[in-house]
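User: quick one, sequence for these tokens?
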């Protein structure tokens, strides 16, 4: 076990990609499950607050401690097994997503949940129910988590396998390794119909494993994770189309999404079926123009999209995508496309660049991140976009608007130039969240609540429901030591 107590050694654990900052007394780095259990037992006995730390790529302050100690999972970093017969991988929580993807590629497999930041820990992605561009076709982490080994706050162990432990209506009973029975009452919650990472996943007759996926380090610490993996696609078509205006780009997304849903519903193989549909507004293109000077002139929006293919249908699918794009006044010279892996990686760099450039701007100017993570039902996407544009037209704050619009999921990132603009931006952020709630959407589609968005969770579900979630935490963590400040105020 490694223990760090010197202030200069602690600094890397006291912030995350949102520029949220905190403090702690010490950082504990267990090198085995037994060491982790020992740390938790001692902390629980002394009622010491514990924050579980991943790789620091989060955007909500969830891994940033307010007090107490930090447990970093960085040394619990083994890929235990990759099974290509039954298509699963077993990993420890500190394995980097990038490392897992690389190992899977070697055996012709892949893991679909793909956050923009690949240098995240797998444990962190399960703790936040992370997603990414391919969520449009494959869904978020929840769809791929098959088994979890969890250490509870008191050091007891809990093993959950998908399909084995279910709630009986609103009653969920869990049995720990020691034989202790934990009985939970599940509140009635109207979950949004969008992708969602806000608070605990709770519904009648639910699979118990889903309560812990997205629980943001508040219910236990993962020590072993079994994930579903898939065969690597034979080919992937990748394109970026540049549009004359943002409205055409949005209508293209709408139509491509409709075609994709039809293809899946009818189980067709040679029709449009997007893996991802990613939108970039005019401000985003300007923000990227220095790094990508080949962005076509006099274009004001872009959509990056991909589709799985094979040698037999690749040319046909490319033709169908070109035909669809041409319906929205896009010239062929304003389309980037790739079919081989090196070219596809270049387009992927374009897709990911906007996120790291925004984070770089925030860090350089020493502001907390003001980037929305809201999603709305698909039939409200255009309405919500119009609201955002109108709202931002009333302020002088610079912004970029992009997102996973296949899922009607918007990242509007404000770029304040002063403390006054930052304060104004926080008020605008609240308005955006409230509008998403009004439209039956979510305040956090993929990043979680953490410490930054606790008020928005109350706005979304109401104080009574959030308090009922807190009761579940207290049942599993009676001394209230794990992840304090995450999800709940």
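Assistant:
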């Amino acid at each position: 076990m490694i223990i760090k107590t010197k202030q200069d050694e602690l600094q890397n654990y006291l912030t995350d990609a949102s520029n949220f900052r905190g403090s702690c007394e010490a950082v504990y780095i267990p090198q085995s499950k037994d060491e982790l259990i020992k740390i938790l037992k001692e902390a629980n006995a002394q009622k010491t607050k514990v924050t579980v730390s991943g790789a620091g790529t989060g955007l909500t302050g969830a891994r940033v401690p307010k007090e107490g100690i930090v447990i970093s999972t960085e040394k619990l970093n083994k890929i235990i097994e990759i099974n290509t017969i039954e298509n699963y991988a077993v990993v420890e929580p500190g394995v980097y997503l990038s490392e897992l993807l690389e190992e899977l590629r070697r055996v012709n497999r892949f893991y679909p949940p793909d956050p923009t930041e690949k240098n995240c820990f797998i444990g962190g992605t399960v703790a936040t129910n992370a997603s990414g561009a391919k969520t449009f076709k494959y869904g978020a982490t929840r769809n791929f988590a098959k088994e979890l080994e969890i250490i509870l706050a008191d050091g007891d162990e809990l093993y959950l396998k998908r399909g084995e432990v279910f709630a009986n209506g609103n009653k969920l009973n869990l049995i720990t390794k020691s034989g202790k029975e934990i009985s939970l009452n599940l509140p009635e919650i109207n979950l949004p119909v969008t992708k969602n990472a806000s608070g605990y996943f709770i519904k009648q007759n639910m699979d118990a494993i889903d309560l812990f996926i997205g629980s943001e380090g508040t219910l236990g610490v993962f020590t072993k994770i079994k994930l579903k993996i898939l065969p690597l696609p034979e080919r992937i078509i990748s394109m970026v189309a540049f549009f004359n205006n943002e409205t055409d780009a949005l209508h293209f997304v709408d139509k491509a999404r409709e075609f994709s849903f039809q293809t899946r519903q009818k189980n067709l193989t040679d029709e449009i079926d997007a893996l991802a549909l990613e939108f970039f507004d005019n401000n985003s293109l300007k923000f990227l123009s220095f790094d990508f000077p080949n962005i076509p002139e006099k274009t004001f929006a872009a959509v990056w999209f991909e589709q799985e293919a094979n040698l037999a249908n690749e040319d046909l699918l490319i033709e169908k995508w070109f035909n669809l794009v041409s319906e929205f006044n896009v010239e062929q010279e304003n389309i980037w496309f790739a079919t081989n892996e090196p070219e596809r990686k270049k387009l992927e760099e374009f897709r990911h660049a906007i996120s790291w450039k925004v984070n770089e701007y925030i860090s350089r100017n020493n502001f907390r991140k003001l980037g929305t993570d809201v999603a709305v039902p698909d039939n409200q996407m255009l309405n919500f976009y119009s609201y955002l544009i109108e709202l931002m037209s009333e302020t002088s704050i610079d912004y970029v608007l992009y997102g996973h619009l296949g899922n009607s999921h918007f990242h509007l990132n404000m770029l304040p130039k002063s403390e006054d603009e930052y304060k104004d931006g926080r008020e605008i952020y609240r308005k955006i969240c409230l509008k998403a709630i009004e439209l039956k959407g979510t305040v956090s589609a993929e990043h979680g609540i953490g410490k930054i968005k606790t008020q928005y969770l109350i706005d979304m579900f109401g104080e009574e429901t959030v308090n009922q979630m807190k009761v579940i935490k207290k049942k599993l963590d009676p001394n209230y030591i794990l992840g304090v400040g995450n999800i709940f105020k």
